[in-house]
Amino acid sequence: MHPLDNVIWHALTTRQAQFAERSANARIFVREVSPLSGFEEPSGANYAALGALIGEGATTAVFLDQPFTKCPGWEFVVGAPLVQMVCHKPAPFAASNGHAVLELGSSESPEMLELTALTKPGPFGTRTHELGAYFGIRDGGKLVAMAGERLKVPGSTEISAVCTHPEHTGKSYARLLMSEIIDRIRAKGETPFLHVRRDNTRAIAVYESLGFQTRKLLHFAVLRRLIK
After folding, report:
1. What distance in Å separates the CA atoms of residue 180 and residue 93, rounded to the nearest whole number?
2. Beta strands in the chain (DSSP E)
3. pTM for the whole thing?
4. What superfamily in CATH does domain 85-216 come from?
């Protein structure tokens, strides 16, 4: 199996095992890092193992190859089709906005949480920034755009949390940040990849302009473990 297939499971059993809580054939990220979880396959036994990890009444998020089907003990909360995209050959991008790309760290975590809460690029917790390098752009001292690394599997690193403050869109900040991260990932001999909602056609167009191509369709599902 390719590492980008069942990517959350592969991340939690390889390069990001240090962030994993585990039970039998299921893995979850430490809650403050990410709500994502995975298992080898969506079997009844593996859903039970996942439920033992998160506890009754708790929620978790998974990537599935097929839409979630009813499973005893679980409730579907929300979900959406996802497109997984990879970048084997980046398209040239010439920055022209004059803003510097700045590396972000733990001290910027409150600002990162504020921006992601406003723009909702996907789940972002108090420790998500520990998963990889994050970069941002400031305007007037305020963090107005950011992007970074999330899932890491052998040979590939995901670009995630790509977002821009609504008052600063249309300035190519996303392209500038992503070009920086793409170059850094490829400099390590790795392939950049990402996930985007299938209905987010505007973002998909941006990613295609940077050289990303669709690899496969996935299904994102937030699930709640029912209380017995």
Report:
1. 10
2. 20-23, 26-29, 37-39, 59-64, 74-86, 102-104, 134-139, 142-153, 156-164, 191-197, 213-225
3. 0.94
4. Gcn5-related N-acetyltransferase (GNAT) (3.40.630.30)
Phi and psi for 90 in degrees, rounded to 5?
-65, 145
pLDDT digits (tens, 9 = 90+) for 26-82: 999 999 999 999 999 999 999 999 999 999 999 999 999 999 999 999 999 999 999
What is the DSSP annotation of 49-103?
Answer: HHHHHH-TT-EEEEEESS-----TTEEEEEEEEEEEEE-SSPPP----S-PPPEE
Token match 């996303």: residue? 174
Token pair belonging to 195: 């996930």
Q: Which residues belong to CATH 3.40.630.30 in the chain?
A: 7-81+219-225, 85-216
CA distance 140 to 186: 31
